[in-house]
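Checklist before submission:
- one chain only
- standard amino acids only
- sequence pasted in full

Submission:
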Amino acid sequence: MATRLIFGCGYLGKRVADRWRAGGDRVIAVTRSSERADRLAEEGLEPLVADVTAPESLRGLPTADTLLYAVGYDRSAAASILEVYAAGLQNVLAAAPNAGRIIYISTTGVYGDARGDWVDEATPANPSRDGGKASLAAEQTLHSGGRRDRGVTLRLAGIYGPGRLPYADALRRGEPIAAPQTGWLNLIHVDDAASAVLAAAQASAPPSVVCVSDGSPPQRSDYYAEAARLLGAPPPRFVEPEPGSPRAARAAADKRVRNRLLVERLGVKLAYTDYRAGLAAILRG
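Returned file contents:
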């Protein structure tokens, strides 16, 4: 029985936790909230209340075969995104020096704008937004020092899945989407993202950085047209996002993300190889 320690047991982390627990592992889920801890305990996990930005709360962490850092950023929190991602990870690593495999959930946002070209693990990172900059700083923290052979960074494309279908309500109401029609969407179904985490934990010699995408990016207009069709909604309409807004910044970072290492080196067999299969499964459910 392996011991798995998860920081960030949310949309992705909870699915990973459930799969490890189903395999007979001991799964410890770290959360800042005592209420969330109670819910995790009711769901069969072993909760631990701690805050990655408060090193004193991390004392006495159990030794784990796998440490997963999948912490999202809470914009209502007092800490900055850099403090949560990079400094938070550094605090966790200092408190868990004997952890085995360490997996950091990063983002393809570290690439910035590639003007529609393909990117992969060999492409230099050039983030333009705060989230991408903080994620890259966390990656550098993970791969420094003596952790070089134990750390795996998974750069995730946009996660979608049950309960997370962007603009679904707006499509049903026929409201316009605040995004340009053109531009590539890089996507990964949450179940395939969870498979990537499990594969990274099990691999004997995984790559240090892996892009996690289905490898079949659609144009934004095609994706939302298919979503509208499956929802029985009117064809999508688009308006330009407000200049300087996060939506505008995301839309400006145009790229296509390859997934060769995910498939060939980690051996992940995607359940949803493109957005059509993923959307159909979600909306059937």
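Reviewer check: The radius of gyration is 19 Å.
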